[in-house]
Design goal:
There is one protein chain. By secondary structure, the chain is α/β, with parallel strands linked by helices. The protein has one domain (2-168): Rossmann fold. It is 36% helix and 19% strand. It has 4 helices and 6 strands, in the order ββαβαββαβα. A 6-stranded mixed sheet has the order 1-3-2-4-6-5. α1 crosses α4. The termini are far apart.
Length: 169
């Protein structure tokens, strides 16, 4: 499901497979954020399992917040924020769609259309084969994750607003 806003300045993109438990944490986050009252210039997208079909979203935004699961060995439910600049900067074990995201980032760099990316990764223990429910450890951190993503989005918009005001002065 996609919720678009007029002339969005910021993209929040949840990545993952909704049908594979914790692996779908990014999609769960996007769906829950769509229920919140956020500024109109934020576009929220359920990006599913990623891939090149998402290129247009990246090309249309200069700033993107990604949310995804990772198999990084940290305790399940650990939330980290990283700012990858190159495909190699993504965590080594970015779940089942790692290659698609890395390839897409490489393509954006090659086309010189790479947006600024903030990546929230949530550590998971394993990739569950079926089921829309997340494990208790990951479900428990969802309120914190939603708040962190919202706060980062509002911080980015405020910085863009300030930057625009400085340019106009």
């Amino acid at each position: 499901m996609i919720m678009t806003a007029p002339n969005p300045n910021l993209l929040i993109l949840g990545i993952g497979n909704y049908l594979m438990g914790d692996e779908g944490v990014g999609v769960h986050t996007a769906l829950r954020l769509q229920e919140k009252q956020l500024p109109e210039n934020i576009e929220i997208v359920d990006g599913g399992t990623g891939g090149f079909y998402l290129l247009q979203y990246f090309e249309d935004h200069d700033t993107v917040i990604l949310i995804d699961a990772t198999l990084d060995g940290n305790p399940p439910g650990t939330i980290r924020l990283i700012e990858p600049r190159f495909a190699k900067d993504f965590p080594r074990a970015m779940s089942t769609h790692d290659i698609g995201l890395r390839d897409m980032v490489s393509a954006l760099q090659w086309m010189e259309k790479m947006p600024h990316i903030y990546l929230f990764v949530v550590s998971i223990e394993s990739i569950q084969q079926q089921g829309i429910d997340m494990t208790p450890a990951v479900e428990r951190i969802m309120p914190d994750l939603l708040q962190l993503v919202t706060d980062k989005a509002l911080e980015i918009l405020e910085a863009k607003k300030h930057h625009s005001a400085v340019l106009l002065a």
